[in-house]
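Ticket #4471: complex job returned nothing on first submit. Input attached below:
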Amino acid sequence: MSYEPVIGLEIHVQLKTRTKMFCGCELSFGDPPNTHTCPVCLGLPGALPVANARAIHYALLIGLALGCEPAPRSIFHRKNYFYPDLPKGYQISQYDIPICSGGRLGDVRIHRAHLEEDAAKLVHVGASGRIHGADESVVDFNRGGTPLVEIVTEPDVRSAAQAREWLTLLRETLRQLGVSDVNMEEGSLRCDANVSIRPAGSDVLGTKTELKNMNSFRYLERGIEAEIARQTAIVEAGGQVEQETLHYDVVTGAISSLRSKEEAHDYRYFPEPDLVPIVVDEGMIEAARAELPELPAQRAERYERELGLSPDSARQLAFRADLAAYFEQALASDGEHPQTLANWVTGELVARVGDGDPAASKVEPAALAKLVALLRAKQVTPGAAKQVLDTLVARGGDPQAIVEAEGLRAIGGGDELAEVVERALASDPDAVEKLKAGNMKAIGPIVGFVMRETKGRADGGEVTRLVREQLRL
Amino acid sequence: MTELLDLTAAQAISRIQAGDLAAGEVFETYRERAAADDLNAFTWVADPAPDGVPSGAPLAGIPLAVKDLFCTEGVPSQSGSKILEGYRPPYTATAVEKLTRAGATLLGKTNQDEFAMGSSNENSAYGPVRNPWDRERVPGGSSGGSAAAVAAGLAPWALGTDTGGSIRQPAALCGIVGLKPTYGAISRYGMIAFASSLDQAGPFTRDVTDAALVLRHMVGQDPCDSTSLAFPEEIALPQGVDLRGLTLGVPQELTGDGIEPGVREAFNATLALAEQLGARVETCSLPHAPHALSAYYLIAPAEASANLARFDGVRYGLRVEGDDLLGMYTQTREAGFGAEVKRRIMLGTYALSSGYYDAYYGRAQQVRTKVAEDFRAAFERFDLLVTPTAPSVAFRLGEKVDDPLAMYLNDVCTVPMSLAGIPAISIPNGLSDGLPVGFQLCGPAFSENRLLQAAYVLEQALDFDGSAARR
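Support reply: We reran it on our side without changes. The output follows.
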C-alpha cells in the first residue's frame, strides 16, 4: 500500500518593529545579554503589558497578504506554563479569537495568523547543551517580548519538497511586506511541521506528530522526509504512530522525542485581563491595504498573464524580489522577448552571479536585454552570447561593442559560411557518404567542423541548410 | 501635638499653606508615631527628612502610608509575602508616583494579607495587624495595615487596594473612610497583582473630604496600563447639607440574613437618617448578587494563579535550590507562599483546567455579567445603592483562621460592586459594642462625585468621633 503524507505548517515570524510587543524596549540582535530589558519584559511584580500598535499593523499586513479576514475585535489570552525563559509564567498570545483567520497563499490554505510575544533565550552551560544535565543555565531577556506572528496553515501540504517550496514563497511574501528579517538561521523565521500519513486516497487524517524548529529550508525538507519515512516504517510494521513532539537532529538526521515544557499539556488559557481587545476598524485595514506591495504570488500570475511567461519562469522570477526587479528593468529597456529574457535572467545570469542581487553585478539590465535582442536577431549565436555574458560579468560594457571587439558576430548566410561548409564536406568524405545515404545524424561532425572554424559564430540552422543545398539532399 | 493629630489632611494642608504649620513638623510627628507603631501596621517606615519636606505642591508634603503591594523604587515592596522578602523594585507605581508629584511624602509601607488575599490581615508573612479599637481583634483585610495606621493616627491617610472589599471592609472595621473607585479610574501599573480584572487602588482617610482630595490626584489614564481610563470630570471636594432629590436603593439580597444585629441596627438607623435628610429610600433587588461571592472566588483565584506564576525563584525574591528545575520551582514556592495563597492558586489552577474551564471560570464570568446587569438595571431607578459594608464588626484574632468559608463571607456585601467594576465607599456608621460599623454606598461607573457628595452629607449628620482609636 502507498501512503500519502499530510502536512500542516506552523510558522513563527519575528516582526521587525522598533520596540517589543508589550513594552518600549528596543529589539536587538547580538547585543550584550540583558541590555534591552525593563520591568515589563522581565516580568517584575506590578508591571503591565501594553500592546504595540505597530505590531498590530504588521499583523494586519501579513493577514491581508495571506488573504485572511481581519477580526474586528480580537483578544489576547494567557498561555500558562513554567519555564525560565518565560518571565511571567505565561505567554501572552491569542487563542480563540485571533487577529486574522482564513486565507490562502499559493496552493495552501491559511487557518489563522495571530500575535504573541517571543520567549527569552536560554543558554545551557555544560556538556549536554540541554537543560537536563546542564551545569548552569542562564537567561538573556533581550529577545523576550519580541513581537511574533504565528501563521498556521491547513494540512494542505503533501510532500517535504512542497513544504520547502511553499515556505520559500511565504518568506518572500513576508520579506516584500518589510515586516520581518525572515532569516531562518537567526530565528526570525521558524517553522514547525505537523506531519501525518494516511493510505493514498483516504480522506481520514492519521495521527500527527509535531516536528519542531527546523532552522533552515534544507533541514525542513530533510526533517519532514525523515519523519514521513519513520511513520511509514511504523505503519508498515503494523504499529501505530504516537502523537508527540519531535526534534530533528540536523547532524545525525535522527528524530527524537522532545521532553521539556511540552510535557505540561494543559496551558489553562484564559483571557488576558491586563489588556483590552484589539479593535480593528476600517481605517486600520485601509491603511494596511494601501501599504501592500505587489506580492510574489500576484507578480507570478501577472508575468504569466501579461508577458506570457511559463509558470516556472514566472515563479522563479517573482519569488525573488531582486531577480524580479532586475528582470523588469531589463524588460523596460527592451520588452520584445520576455520569455528569452526570463530564461537568461534565471538561467545564465543566476548561474554566473549566484544568490546575490544581480543589480549589484557589472551586467546592466539594459545590456542583458540588448544581448537577448542580438541573440533573437541571430546576430550572435547562443554560444557566442554566453561568451559575451562572461565578458559582461567580468568587466561590464556594451554587448554590441563586445561582439565587435571579440569578433563574435554570427556568420550569416552567403559566401563566407558556404565556403566553410564546402571545406567541411571536403574534409569528411565518410560523413558525406552517410548523409547522401539519408543518415542525417552524420551532420554532427560537419557542424562541429564549421563551429570550430568560425569560433561558434555560425548558426546551426543555417549550416544545415547549406549542407543540404550543397549535397542536393 | 494632640491638636495636630486631630487635623484631617485637608485641614493640615490649609494650615501649612497659610504658614501656620510646618510641613516638616507634620511629617516628623507622623513618622515618629509610625516608627513606634505597636499594631504591626507598618512593614517599613521612612527615615527622617533632614532637608525638610517640600510643601509647595497641592498636597503640601502631607505624609502618606502606602500598602506594601505598591511598588516603590528602592523601598521594600513585599506584598506581605515571604517570597518577596527584601525585594526593592526599580520603579514606582503610577498611583504613588502621581500622589508624590502632587506633594505627598512617602511615610511608610503598610502590612497586608499576603498578595491581598484575606479579610483579616492574618495572612501576612510579617504577622497580623491589630485593630486600634481593640488590640485583640483584627483590623480587616487585606489592606489591614493601611486601615489600622489611619485609624490609630499613625498616618493622616493611606493607600490601599480593593479586589473584593480589601479597602471597604477594613475601613469599616477600623472606623474610617475607605473608597474603591471605578475599575480603570486609577492606574494599576506597579501594583503587585492579585486579580487583574478586579484590583483597584483607593484611599483610606479620616473623612470624606480627604478621600476626595486623594482621589483627585490619583485618577487618570496611564499609558502604562491599557485598562485605565480618563476620568470624565474633575473630582470635586464634597459639600452640601442634605440628600434632597436623591433616591437610595437597599438591595434586599445584601441586607438580609447573615448581618449581625448591631450592624443591622446601625444600618437601619442611618437609612432613617438619610430619609430625614431628604433622600427617598426604597428596597430593591440584585437577583444575581447571592451568586457573586461564588463567582468572585473562582475569578479572583483563577487570575491570581497566573499572576503569581512569576514568583518562580528565577529572577528575584526567594529561591530555594532544588535538585533540578522543577525542584527549585516547587521548593521555592512551597517555602515562599503562605497557606491561603497556596489554597487560592490551587483553586484557580483547577478552575482554569481543561475540562473544567467552562463549568467554573466560564460560568463565573457569566455570573459576573449578570451581576453587572443587575446593577445597571437598579441604577435606572436609583441614584445610589446602600448596604452595610461588612456583616459584622471586627472579630477576634484567630477566630476565623481555620474556617476559610466563614472568612470569605466577610466580603459578601462588597464583592458584587467589585465584579461590576463600580465605585463604592465605606463611611463610619457609629459603634456597636464599642467597635466600628461601616455604611457602604455605591453608584454607577464614574459616579464618584455623586457618591462622595452623599457620603459627605451622611458623614456630617452622623458626626462619628474616631479619636478614641488615636490615643
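Chain A touches chain B through 31 residues (CB under 8 Å). Closing as resolved unless it happens again.
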